[in-house]
Write a structure and sequence with these properties.
Layout: H1 3-19, E1 78-82, H2 88-97, E2 102-107, H3 110-123, E3 128-132, E4 145-151, H4 160-170, E5 171-185, H5 190-193, H6 196-200, E6 207-208, H7 209-218, E7 222-232, H8 236-239, H9 245-252, E8 257-266
Parallel strand pairs: 1-2, 1-4, 2-3, 4-5, 5-6
Antiparallel strand pairs: 5-8, 7-8
Helix pairs in contact: 1-3
Amino acid sequence: MKPKDIKQIVQEKYGQIASSSDDHSNKSCGCSPDCGSSAGYTIFSESYNHLEGYHPDADLSLGCGIPTKFAAIAPGDRVLDLGSGAGNDCFVARAIVGETGHVTGLDFTEAMLHKAEENRRKLGFSNVEFVKGDIEEMPLPDNRFDVILSNCVLNLVPDKQKAFGEIMRVLKPGGHFCVSDVVLRGELPEKIRSDAEMYAGCVSGAMEKDDYLRIIEKQGFKDIKVHKEKQILLPDNLLKGFTDDSEMSAFNNGENGIFSITVTGYKN
């Protein structure tokens, strides 16, 4: 698919999730290809319930980690969340930066931005804002942020080199990013990679872990560290529609697989 088509699919998919988020039976299907089915299950996301600043209405269970846990955010920091959705990570980050800091959420889906702003108004935060924009071409100034977060979003961006180049541009010197994302080990079966629903469900857009880390290094980031890595075990009833027996066996025994990682990198 062309990058423009991929972005349109992602916008449509996550727009539908945002619009239907008040239906709690649908709330946890953002990274599942059977979004909208009564079975809806969460195969990537982790619980935020224990975190200060957690706001349930902002949690659509679309993440694959908790980047704020490893982001070394400090009071007073200026933080940017890429693909901020309904604002979940932004509100957790706001609890850390406090009144003297500032949090910006960037998203390109109107329905998500509307949901996030609705949540911000309910919480009464004046130092949280949500901006419409493309991660590959951020409408943000150079050298602006101390910390950049993203949670299960960059794998959906067609040009990851551009994305990390933009992260480098808008970070302050000495600033850093902390990203939770989906990566692969081995080749993903073509039937999964080519399926648009799986793409918007956080799987088919993923790339090899080593290639992903090389892109980060190529953009000039230093002290790159993977803080957490967890294999995502997809249920057989999901895989059987996309794989043959040998491909399913490779997934089950760990030869190939899908992993969530949380990684940081620093700008000099």
